[in-house]
Write a structure and sequence with these properties.
Layout lengths: L1 H27 L19 E3 L9 E6 L3 E7 L9 E6 L17 E7 L32 E10 L2 E8 L5 E6 L2 E7 L3
Antiparallel strand pairs: 1-4, 2-3, 3-9, 4-5, 5-7, 6-7, 8-9
Length: 189
């Protein structure tokens, strides 16, 4: 009987250890906007996509950074439901539509397509004031550990294209929070 009690206690302690590890793993990738307690590199570097469509225009692109990753946020004000995107590494950044090569500084280039035009489809009025081949307006990457450069590609056939220059090819994740599409790139593997 004593042996059964010892085994039961061991199982409870093992379960607590698993639960504690799960809590740490959750903290590593915690909610958007919160600095994680521990850095996760489990995101991988393979391309990530969602084919959901959106008809609302892009309003803004902003960046921030934490101790574990640098973040780029696409604000698609008024969007409801899932947002469409395709994010992946490329050897060279080429403008969608024309195919013109746009130089992007850094050791790796992450190409980001968001299913949101940078203009209002109904009026044609520009909603995100960016110029093809130029850095993203209002984005200053001074002090960032992973992000090195940004370039606007195009707004073509209902999607916006951005080139993100990185220090190296690193793990990344794509999240959605309401009407914002978030791309986080880890500082390390």
């Amino acid at each position: 009987m004593r042996r059964l009690g010892t085994m039961a206690a061991a199982l409870v302690l093992a379960g607590a250890g698993v639960a504690g590890a799960a809590g740490v793993a959750g903290a590593a990738t915690g909610p958007a906007g919160k600095a994680p307690a521990a850095c996760s590199t489990a995101w991988g570097s393979a391309g990530k996509s969602a084919t959901d469509a959106n008809s609302k225009p892009l309003k803004n692109i902003k960046t921030s950074h934490t101790t574990c990753y640098d973040r780029m946020v696409f604000d698609i004000g008024g969007a409801t439901g899932k947002l469409g995107y395709h994010v992946g590494y490329v050897d060279a950044f080429h403008q969608d539509g024309s195919g013109e090569r746009i130089p992007v500084k850094g050791g790796a280039i992450l190409q980001i397509y968001v299913s949101a035009p940078s203009h209002d489809p109904a009026t044609g009025k520009q909603t995100y004031a960016a110029t093809a081949g130029k850095p993203l307006p209002g984005v200053n990457l001074t002090g960032y550990k992973t992000f090195k450069d940004t370039k606007f590609g195009a707004s073509f056939e209902g999607q916006t294209q951005v080139g993100l220059g990185l220090r190296a090819k690193l793990p990344f994740r794509v999240l959605q929070s309401g009407h914002e599409l978030i791309v986080d790139v880890a500082h390390t593997w």
